[in-house]
Prior knowledge:
Blueprint: H1 2-24, H2 42-46, H3 60-63, E1 74-90, E2 97-99, E3 103-117, E4 120-142, E5 148-150, E6 156-159, E7 166-192, E8 195-216, E9 219-230, E10 234-242, E11 247-254, E12 257-267, E13 280-290, E14 293-302, E15 307-316, H4 318-321, E16 324-330, H5 342-350, E17 355-359, E18 365-377, E19 380-389, E20 409-420, E21 424-434, E22 438-440, E23 460-476
Antiparallel strand pairs: 1-2, 1-3, 1-23, 3-4, 4-7, 5-6, 7-8, 8-9, 8-10, 9-12, 10-11, 11-14, 12-13, 13-16, 14-15, 15-18, 16-17, 18-19, 19-20, 20-21, 21-23, 22-23
Amino acid sequence: xxxxxxxxxxxxxxxxxxxxxxxxxxxxxxxxxxxxxxxxxxxxxxxxxxxxxxxxxxxxxxxxxxxxxxxxxxxxxxxxxxxxxxxxxxxxxxxxxxxxxxxxxxxxxxxxxxxxxxxxxxxxxxxxxxxxxxxxxxxxxxxxxxxxxxxxxxxxxxxxxxxxxxxxxxxxxxxxxxxxxxxxxxxxxxxxxxxxxxxxxxxxxxxxxxxxxxxxxxxxxxxxxxxxxxxxxxxxxxxxxxxxxxxxxxxxxxxxxxxxxxxxxxxxxxxxxxxxxxxxxxxxxxxxxxxxxxxxxxxxxxxxxxxxxxxxxxxxxxxxxxxxxxxxxxxxxxxxxxxxxxxxxxxxxxxxxxxxxxxxxxxxxxxxxxxxxxxxxxxxxxxxxxxxxxxxxxxxxxxxxxxxxxxxxxxxxxxxxxxxxxxxxxxxxxxxxxxxxxxxxxxxxxxxxxxxxxxxxxxxxxxxxxxxxxxxxxxxx
Length: 477
């Protein structure tokens, strides 16, 4: 009896961490990876996140640090991108789809650059490189693979018996929130006229919170998890080259970084400790990987530089970085009120139940985009953009929190910039993510099986809508 219950509490922690992390991992809103596209400098919200060949000023630290060399003396940029996301997904198979409430997430950016010599610019920037969240409220049915029939008021009246559904009374909520922030320290150098080189040191920090109502070995119960921590520093390298007065090419490479996060999994009353069936708390730790990224583009400056046209391509290597997630649980409160029975925990360690590996099977994300910017007046510019990309999420692991699998997700963007006096520039940008609804007709036999703790690839319709609104101000000397 003790062993069975110990397995339940350990599995509860597993269920929450893998579910919450796995569900959130693919959420790029428009193109299904963990990096919001149209962010950090509202000019680049309006260009759909493109800018490898033409980015300028402090936002270059995020897009291509070589653009810092556009700074004359000193520039400071403060910006906010508001991300609004809604999902429609099933928690009980076909017929159980429901809309999530709008999730509004502010993604701030603060950056500065200072020219220290004729050919050198240094900078400092703080921004969110990975940011997402999702929540569903009033979930009335859980068990992703169950097929249900509802009455005219939406109540579950029958199932076909493929899985044992859990009808929640009262309805429950699920939520996931993650951000990875980076402090970047760039240095940019122009060795010859027209050639700009740069490198930035990136110092990452991650924070993850989740609340999930999960099937824990036949018992449905909520669990809460919070982990946070710093990562191993990475680099961001960039180059821009003026081929002529008309043509500029640019490219950037971002290294993979690992963010180690640790914290706690809190299990509810009746699923935690063995004696007295009290609530329990376990130490948890995991690693989050921000993948390698390569982007390259070309910009054309026409009509005496009043018109800029640019095309760009990007690859994010999720297939290498995000094939799986491994995390560990520790009974560090042994002997305390919220600890777990030592004998049961030792058995869990011997059988490997204190460490878990979850497959994600992510795909690389490929992006193509084009943008145009036109100077309507000397102090007013308007811009448009469109991008196309595939989703990292495969059909076999899609969840209610992940953007649906697709090879044709689009983003459209627009915005404008205005000079106010000689020192201040204001930019405003808007973008929307578009994509088809994914129809999963049958349960994945491995990931949506009855005995799967964290289910994915379950039948139903999955869709996501995303909107961006950016506002930034740049002060120049």
